[in-house]
Amino acid sequence: MNYNKAEFTASYGIFKQIPRSDRLEFAFSGHSNVGKSSLINKLLNRRSLARVSATPGKTSTINFFSVDSIYIVDLPGYGYAKVSKNEKQRWAELIEGYLHDERDLALVFQLIDFRHKPTEDDIMMIDFLIDSGIPFVIVLTKADKMKKKEREARLEAFRTEIPCFEDITVIEFSAETGEGADKIRAIIDDIAEGEQDV
């Protein structure tokens, strides 16, 4: 997979605008300001292909990026408080509509801030993915901001905070250092190649 040739394809603010799935898709989900755009930029070796904002809740559309024969899909960040009820409802319908649609969705990368206990919205999202039978892995972001002992303590805490944590693939990630980016790319490559071999 040539990640250097990634291109922004389109963004959609309403679910019914999204065209039918015509290739394998890898979606990135997470709380507002968890670092989704930074992760996608690091993954695709770009500085600003996915727009990074200091203001949480800035990504209010589903954004599609093409890489070879797949799509990287940036879902709107959930759980941002300073947004109107109508806007929150639209985001929820957009995310749920996408995840429940008959798409060629290979995997969801569920991002959680490594430094903190998962939010209620994080747990709801994980439960939703489990109940829907949607395959996912957890990416713990902002790993560079923690010392080794702090990481170990948080990983231990996650065992009781996150349902089925022991059974989920977990990747420690830093947009600053690039830690974990190769693991994410390897997972995408393995699934995409496996699909081609079928």
Topology readout:
Layout: E1 7-12, E2 24-30, H1 36-43, E3 62-67, E4 70-74, H2 85-100, E5 105-113, H3 120-132, E6 136-141, H4 148-161, E7 170-172, H5 181-197
Parallel strand pairs: 2-4, 2-5, 5-6, 6-7
Antiparallel strand pairs: 1-3, 3-4
Provide the spatial order of strands within the biggest beta sheet.
1-3-4-2-5-6-7
Largest sheet: 7 strands, mixed
The CATH architecture classification is 3-Layer(aba) Sandwich
The name of the CATH superfamily reads: P-loop containing nucleotide triphosphate hydrolases
Order of helices and strands: EEHEEHEHEHEH
Beta-strand percentage?
Answer: 15-25%
Tell me how many strands there are: 7
Uncertain parts: 52-58
- Rg from alpha-carbon coordinates: 16 Å
Describe this structure in words.
The chain has one domain: P-loop containing nucleotide triphosphate hydrolases (Rossmann fold), CATH 3.40.50. The chain is 34% helix and 21% strand. The protein has helices at residues 36-43, 85-100, 120-132, 148-161, 181-197; strands at 7-12, 24-30, 62-67, 70-74, 105-113, 136-141, 170-172. It is globular, with a radius of gyration of 16 Å. Mean pLDDT is 87; it is low at 52-58.
